[in-house]
Amino acid sequence: MISVKDKEKCCGCEACVQICPQRCITFDEDSEGFRYPRVDTAKCVQCGLCTQVCPMLNSPKEMSSLQAFSYQSAAPKILSKSSSGGLFSALASHMLSQGGVVAGARFNERWEVEHTCVDTLDELEDLRTSKYVQSRVGHTFKEVAETLSKGRPVLFCGTPCQVAALRRFVRRNQELLTCADFICHGVPSPLVWRQWLSSTFKDSKITEINFRSKSKGWRNYHLEVRLASGEVFSFAIPDSAYTRAFSANITLRPSCYRCPMRGDHRSSDLTMADFWGLDHLMDSMQNDQGVSLAFARTEKVMKLLEDLGAVPLNYPMTELLRKNSSYAHQTPTTALRHELFSYAVKHPDTIIERLEQLTHLSPMQRRYYKICTFVRKIFGMI
Questions:
Q1: Segment (H or E) for 25
Q2: Model-level pTM?
Q3: Which segments in the chain show pLDDT lower than 70?
Q4: Is residue 2 packed enough to be buried (19+ CB in 10 Å), middle (13-18) or exposed (0-12)?
Q5: Is 222 helix (H, G, I), strand (E, B) or coil?
Q6: Whole-angstrom Cα distance, residue 368 to residue 372?
């Protein structure tokens, strides 16, 4: 029976909920806005499936990359709508052309992030671009397994922990499943996201959100929010409490600071990223519209990337990951996180006000919280 006594040991993948034959596991949101499993012990038959499928209890073995690639779409429309070089769109479009299904993250009507399965190009539009909020997987793993059982191939894109969970969940037809993860900094709280949207836009109707708008270039990407009134709000990282907090590691899920899926401990066929370090390595494709970096781990995906026109790279991993430290290194903890969520327990409706304060500290205040972080680390409190 799954039991979360230490929140660092739960990534919120929801695999345990979907695998349970008794349907005795539910997911409840805590005061930080993250969801955790709760077991109805009266219904539990101790089958052990929930613990077997958990990626945090069964972290992936080390799986080295075969080949690194760079990719930039030749289609201007696709490139402009993609967070980076459009590699996900290329992989997804290929999967659909083969009669397959694509599973990825989208916004729902409440601007929450959730996983879903699509099988048309029109639906694929919703899965493009990065979403810097933890997604709710829902029943997507079940849908993927059912699709594979019908002989249809599936491309699943998610965080490294979601991919690791899906690989443990799917027991048959793995040869039809292609999994893509990405270099993940960590997933922010859905509660903080809801509060930020509410406090920033009040009752205004939002029609579009793009976390990685290239209106000012790929290197200078902005969080862009469009309203029904026609107004467009554009936020660079320093311009909003939400993006500042994400960058400062204040609002991430506890498991993200102790992630067992860093480095090559992954279950994916390939890992995607922004090729931020290309400036000192390459002279081509530098039009500030984005270049994707990919690490292929299977022969199947390596051949697919070559067929799609991706360019093989012969540089050391240290050079390729120069600006993507989250691949191998844990996201640093901070006492500011404890400060924010301790406040949220008593004042859940004014989280953003406190977040504004915590992301606008004076030099003396910053030194104080650095000392707090050091002390809490020494005593094992973070």
A1: strand 25-29
A2: 0.96
A3: 282-286
A4: buried
A5: strand
A6: 6
